[in-house]
Amino acid sequence: MKSKIYLLSFFLVVFCSCVTEIDSTKHGLKYSDFENKLKPDMTYNSIVAIFGVPLKDIGSGIHIYVYQLADSSEIWIGYSDKILYARHMDENGQIINTIIGDKGYSLTYDYFKANLKPDMTYNSIVTKFGTPLKDIGSGIHIYVYQLTDSSEIWIGYSDKILYARHMDKNGQIIENLI
């Protein structure tokens, strides 16, 4: 009987050691881990199996899984039923690198000026420009898109576009687009 208990205990210990979740905050993750291992076709379960459980999910409409890196920067993974994008972010929420892009074009002022129309819905905005980097609104949505030159486009939105502004790095208006 004792040998059966020891054998059962052995298998229980082996099983438990194989299924423990990885805590991403204690994992010592680096940018290179994500750059080398993150693939666009990964499922949530495969992401967790490699990188651990995300520190938090800051998404609204889609999941945005946040992983804290050892150097205090973060990886943000935009996810719905697949990875939409993966970005390396600094402590101020600015993009350092794009690991997986959510569009096949660069976000520039000229691209917004040519393609942003006052009658666009949220879905048509996302289709044309990708998922906003963040929503800083209170009372209305203010969707923020970071451009390749580090300036931003802010789109004030309720059930329609209220305004669109080109903003500098200090949050000052460069130009009103709408």
Features:
5-stranded antiparallel sheet, alpha+beta, 5 helices, globular
What order do the helices and strands come in, and which of them pair?
Blueprint: H1 2-19, H2 31-37, H3 44-51, E1 56-57, E2 63-68, E3 74-79, E4 83-89, E5 95-100, H4 109-115, H5 122-129, E6 134-135, E7 141-146, E8 152-157, E9 161-167, E10 173-176
Antiparallel strand pairs: 1-2, 2-3, 3-4, 4-5, 6-7, 7-8, 8-9, 9-10
Q: Which percent range describes the beta-strand content? A: 25-35%
Q: Write the element-wise H/E pattern from the N-terminal end onward.
A: HHHEEEEEHHEEEEE
Total strands? 10
Shape: globular
Kindly report the spatial arrangement of strands forming the biggest sheet.
1-2-3-4-5
Average per-residue pLDDT, rounded, comes to: 83
Low-confidence stretches: 11-25
Major β-sheet, in short? 5 strands, antiparallel
Helix- and strand-based class? alpha+beta
Count of helical segments? 5
Short description:
The protein is of the alpha+beta class and 178 residues long. 27% of the residues lie in helices and 29% in strands.
How would you characterize this protein structure?
The protein is α+β, with helices and mostly antiparallel strands. Helix content is 27%, strand content 29%. The chain has five helices and ten strands. It has helices at 2-19, 31-37, 44-51, 109-115, 122-129; strands spanning 56-57, 63-68, 74-79, 83-89, 95-100, 134-135, 141-146, 152-157, 161-167, 173-176. A hairpin with a 5-residue loop joins strand 7 (141-146) and strand 8. The longest helix has 18 residues, at 2-19. The protein is globular, with a radius of gyration of 21 Å. Mean pLDDT is 83; it is low at 11-25.
